[in-house]
Amino acid sequence: MPEGRVFPVWRGIGVGAGVWSQGWGRCLQWDPDGPEQGPRIPVFDYPVWVVLCQGGRARLREVCQRGRGAIRLPTDMLSIKLPQLFDIHQVPKVFREDSIISGYRHPRSSALDCVLSSFQLNNETVNIWTHFLPTWYFLWRFCALCSTMNFLTDSYTWPLLVYMLLICVYPFTSCCAHTFSTMSPESRHICYFFDYGALSLYSLGCAISYGYYVMPDCLLNSWLHQHFVPIAIGNTLFCTGLSCYSRFLELQFPQRSKALRTGAFVLPFIFDTVPLFYRILLCCGGSGCSPSDALSSHCYHLLFAFLTCFLFTAHLPERLAPGRFDYIGHSHQLFHVSAVVGTHFQMEGVMADMTSRRAWLLAHGGTPSFLGTIGMLVASLVLNLGIIGIFSTPLLWNSPHGAGQPRTPKCKEQ
Ligand SMILES: [Zn+2]
């Protein structure tokens, strides 16, 4: 406390009976009346009426203002103005979600507002976090593998390297897409183009790892085995192209758009899973299979994959009670969780197969090549980015108001 500042003490009536409270004591200050009084230590025992009669009323008001300011300061420093939320009829059609009534962010949010909105409960918050946190989980698993495996020189680990990279990329891309999708209608489409591209690349990661580690013994070196990864690259191009195109039909033909997008992701999934289905069928038939940790993990993965597909298409539970699950519990959040849990079991299955079948696969299937793994990933990445670029360019060139709804009348709802 600087010199010359004291806490006035209530000693007027009943000396010693009462004092200014500690809270007020921190805020009040007692200034000397003039410079001649200098650093004189003021007398503490001023009665209150003296304070009031010698212009103290104004001074008291002033210190009260300072006190309020001092109290409010930390609150102002901590309070950040969070973006306003809107109901479904207040946002353009392109932003509306089936059976989600409230909790929409502003359709022209700034990038900062988008980032801040991830800390504010709205209808995208859980979508963002259900893919942001798993990104760190998969990164942690990847780092742990880096310390135990030699990804640089051991070519047998390269399919796993590609797979691990892609299971880190797809939830992170999805998290970014959900975060920044409300900057404009154009940005919404482009964000989800990248989301679809990352998902189709993930399907390539599955194909590469399944082709090298999960392929059943009887299909090793077959035509399917030899062409498995190139076909999977074709699937990623088909998947990215069709899913991006489906966004252009969303407003005019929502059912067709949904069917095309679902088909775009189901096809690579079915193709990638052919070796796994075959192995499970062989097991069920009782030939050439012994139950293993890998197979049980793969079965759990398939279970969650079907659940993921069901949640994506059914829009349950929000369809049963529109508005009830706007913030927590709607199908897209459950879809994210189911997809991540499925990916976890898939990762466990792939790693178990990779470890347990190493000697046999190296002896009969040959070693994975750089071009067949990382080269394929790079080629597919470039081609998919090209497709995303083709779909994004017209949106970037169009006017801001019409760009979000290509081939459809301009949306009047604001
Ligand atoms: Zn999503």
Q: What does this protein structure show overall?
A:
The chain folds into two domains: 22-78, no CATH class; 88-397, Rhopdopsin 7-helix transmembrane proteins (Up-down Bundle), CATH 1.20.1070. The chain has helices spanning 22-27, 48-78, 111-117, 125-148, 158-180, 185-214, 223-248, 254-285, 293-314, 331-356, 358-364, 370-397. It has twelve helices and no strands. The model is unreliable at 1-53, 73-78 and 402-414 (pLDDT under 50). The chain is elongated and about 90 Å long. The relative contact order is 0.11. Helix 6 (185-214) runs antiparallel to helix 7 (223-248), helix 6 runs parallel beside helix 10 and helix 6 (185-214) packs antiparallel against helix 12 (370-397). The longest helix has 32 residues, at 254-285. The chain binds zinc ion. Zinc ion binds at residues 127, 174, 178, 332, 336.
Q: Any key phrases for this structure?
A:
single chain; 414 residues; mainly alpha; Rhopdopsin 7-helix transmembrane proteins; 2 domains; disordered C terminus; binds zinc ion; zinc; metal ion binding
